[in-house]
Please model this.
Amino acid sequence: MLQTCPGVAEAAVVPVPNPVLGEEVGAFLVAHEGVSLDEAQVVDHCRTHLADYKVPVRIAVVPALPRNAMGRVTKGALRFDGATSGPSEARPGPARTLGQSRT
Model:
């Protein structure tokens, strides 16, 4: 749905921790070349097409999404820092080895 928003070339949706709800929606967006994205316009577009709980509460515009060797987006590398609202930078997620549990 985010990729249908004007100016959005790519999008990745990740969880954002919320102390009351558990998790909310966050989005990392890549803009088309030469286009600047306005967070308010993206949120308005989402509000018209999505249920309230699916609308991103945090949005970050990044130059490119991290990808693995197969070309798939590595969402584990996308994180929002802190608990404040608004965009923040992506940072690497925790490293794990195969067979290691997530807890």
